What does this fold into?
Amino acid sequence: MGRRCLWLAKKLGVEQQVLFINRFVSPEEMACLVGSADIYITSYCNEAQAVSGTLAYALGAGKAIISTPYWFAAEVLDQGRGKLVPFENPAALATATIALLANDEAREAMRERAYLYARPMIWSRVAQSYMAAFRRARASRVESVHMRIAVHANASDTEQRVVNA
It folds into this structure.
C-alpha cells in the first residue's frame, strides 16, 4: 500500500480527504476512525478471508459498506446491508463508491440495515445472551439433580415396601 497510495491520492487531489493507516490500531482508535468514515471499504484479494474485525466495527457503527465478497462480508452484507464488488476490480469499487456518495437515500438505508443487523452483536447484548445461556444451563442442571433425587427417593420407597411386605 504505502507510498504508491499516497502518491496516487496526491496526484488525484484527495490527499486531504483520504487517510491510509498501515498498522494495527487500538479498539478506541478503531472506533474513532470507523465512526468518522462516510463509507467503509474493505477489499481482500480472495474469498478465504474468514472474518474482518474492522468490518464488524463498521456494521456496529451503522456505516455504508462496500466490500469484495470474501466469506464473512458475503454473509453479513447480504440483504442490502452493504455492496459487494468483484475481487481485483478497481473499476467496480470506484463505481460503487461514486454511486453511494451520489445517493444519500440509498446510503442512509444501507447504514440503517447494517446498524440494525449488528445490534445483537454488540458486547452488552452478547454478554446478556451469555448470561441467559448460563442461567438456562444452571436451571437445567438444578432440575436434573432434583429429578434424580426424586427418582432415588421413589426407588427407596419401593424397596421399603418390598422389605415390609
